[in-house]
Specification:
With 340 residues, the chain is α/β, with parallel strands linked by helices. The chain has two domains: 197 residues, Spore Coat Polysaccharide Biosynthesis Protein SpsA, Chain A (Alpha-Beta Complex); 120 residues, no CATH class. The protein contains twelve helices and eight strands. The protein has an eight-stranded mixed sheet with strand order 3-2-1-4-7-6-8-5. α9 crosses α10. The radius of gyration is 22 Å and the shape is globular. The chain starts with 5 loop residues before the first strand and ends in an 11-residue tail after the last helix.
């Protein structure tokens, strides 16, 4: 590929508070993108006016309004309308460092065997809760390439890879980037790592929103048939036992002894290993023994509930299973897949 061009694509919705920072970060990259393509899902908070302002001042910014689209559909639309050979992806609400694009595309430019690259995700936080919520939500790149995937918050790939997969699976609200990466790898796409391509993001700011996030992640996992039902039922049984004995304790106080025993077992088997891992990685902080147990318990409960419901949808609700089979066999295609 001689002098390949690079497009940044992103999907946004009601990002007035952060869209200027995102666009400024795109425009101030050490490697300037050949174009920036934004798909807006129908913002009503002033985001569109800011997008228009930037587009008027920068010829390489294009944006399209597609009301009601999900992330997968929005990305497919953006990629289909991008004219470059390489696609770099990040999300609204994220903040790429100045050398992000240069570092991200470097493996693709230097090694033609790589079809995709995964960058590094960094946590921005304003309090201890957000710090631990982010640390526990962020996994690093696998050292073994066979286990490595690339996620939409910080990745780049050749447009030909996207075309070969059929695009992001649009029937999914979450797990769409996981399935897209797995499909690309099944077609022989090799995935590199760009350790200096850093995108910062702010995690969910409270327990309620964090619970919803984990539930949706689990639901996405279930919808693509990846739920480990044995593990799901094991963890949900443990949660059911401590909740049940806790409620019974208001009638028979001795039942609270069983609650304490169940919580002690879950702390030892579920929470303590996470705390030790954080300590070993130097990622502990004041509040470790308060926030981490609560976040781990919320993650375990809501993610497993999501996986169970998502798996039920996969098994019983059309068109999840049918679409997954079509996608994995190469027969599902985005309506906007490029012809290249």
């Amino acid at each position: 590929m001689q002098n390949p061009t690079v497009s940044i694509i992103s999907t946004v919705l009601n990002e007035r508070s952060s869209i200027k920072n995102l666009l400024d970060a795109f425009l101030n990259q050490t490697r300037r993108p050949d174009e920036i393509v934004i798909v807006d899902g129908g913002s009503t908070d002033g985001t569109l006016e800011l997008l228009q302002e930037y587009a008027d001042q920068n010829a390489n910014i294009k944006f399209f309004v597609e009301k009601g689209v999900n992330i997968a559909r929005g990305r497919n639309l953006a990629i289909a309308r991008a004219s470059s050979d390489i696609i770099a992806v990040t999300d609204g609400g994220c903040h790429p460092e100045p050398v992000w694009l240069e570092g991200l595309v470097k493996p693709l430019l230097e090694n033609p065997e790589f079809g995709a690259v995964s960058g590094v995700r960094n946590v921005e936080h304003i309090n201890t809760f957000e710090y631990f919520a982010g640390v526990l939500s962020t996994s690093g790149n696998a050292t073994d390439e066979a286990q490595r995937v690339f996620h939409g918050r910080n990745s780049a790939f050749r447009k030909s890879v996207w075309a070969a997969t059929g695009g992001y699976p649009e029937w999914l609200y979450t797990a769409e980037d996981t399935l897209f990466a797995q499909r690309a790898k099944a077609l022989g796409c090799r995935v590199g790592v760009a350790d200096d391509a850093v995108v910062s993001w702010r995690p969910r700011p409270n327990f309620k929103k964090l619970a919803k996030q984990y539930y949706l992640y689990g639901r996405g996992t279930g919808r693509i048939g990846r739920a480990d039902l044995k593990a799901v039922f094991y963890h949900l049984r443990n949660h059911a036992l401590w909740i049940f004995t806790f409620l019974v304790g208001f009638i028979f106080p001795w039942a609270w002894l069983a609650t304490l025993g169940m919580l002690a077992f879950m702390y030892t088997s579920l929470i303590a290993p996470v705390i030790k891992k954080l300590q070993d990685a130097g990622k502990d902080a004041p509040g470790l023994y308060w926030y981490v147990p609560l976040i781990v318990m919320i993650r375990s409960l809501y993610n497993n509930l999501g996986q169970l419901y998502g798996y039920w949808e996969y098994a019983k609700v059309e068109p999840f299973k049918k679409n997954l089979a079509l996608y994995l066999s190469g027969q599902w295609k985005s309506a906007d897949k490029a012809s290249d």
